[in-house]
Amino acid sequence: MTKTRPPSPPEDTLLRRSYHHGDLRRSLLDAAVQLIETHGVDAVSVRAVAKIAGVSPGAPFRHFATRTALLTAVAEEAMNRLAGTIELSLQAAADQNPLMQFRAIGIGFLRWAFANPTHFQVISARAVIDFEGSSLRQRNDMIRAKMTELMDEAATVGLLQPGDVRHHQMAARALVYGLARMYVDGQFPSWEFNESDALKECIAIFDQFVASISA
User: Fold this and answer.
1) Pick from 49, 24, 205, 31: which is nearest to 118 by CA?
2) Number of Cβ within a 10 Å radius of residue 50
3) Each residue of 186-214: pLDDT tens digit?
4) DSSP-derived secondary structure for 162-186
5) Which of 48, 103, 176, 192 has CA 20 to 30 A from 170's CA?
6) How many helices (H) and strands (E) does the chain have?
7) Helix H segments across 93-134?
8) Nearest to 207 by CA among 185, 176, 165
9) How far is residue 130's CA from residue 138's CA, in Å, rounded to a whole number?
């Protein structure tokens, strides 16, 4: 006698279970990162992410109503991780002078960007994320405030060359961002940089900049 197979739970029921356990949101974020790694930020859509996550096209809209909301959530995770890496870098330099602590922020940024190139792409793509209307602005401002505090302190105690402190700070930011961007975009081979030594070389370049503004 053939046994009758019990009917599978309706898809909506399965989705509700995923939502209850928080698995679907995590799966969607992971799928978005996977899609960016493979095809770039421009390839991301809520429906494409749903397909990778293996859920119905409408399921993600309960968490992310728009593509912007989805990418912003990925960027918020990226910012949290970046802030954590910078904090660890600052802790390691806690007994050093303010200029070396400022350096630690730049080194932390480089280490994070090299280790997380996909998240770096998302956090840098401000045209496709809600930077102002999310936690991104606040977290970014906190990092900038710490940079300003350390740079002002370095100037006060005579550790900096004469000049506009804001220009020193902006130049440092532009340098580490530009180096990270070049790495992510695959430009180092054309500059005869060995890929395996890229982070080490970038830290050396940043150190050269820090030395150039030191009194």
Assistant:
1) 31
2) 21
3) 999 999 888 889 999 999 999 999 999 99
4) SS-HHHHHHHHHHHHHHHHHHHHTT
5) 192
6) 9, 0
7) 98-115, 117-124
8) 176
9) 12
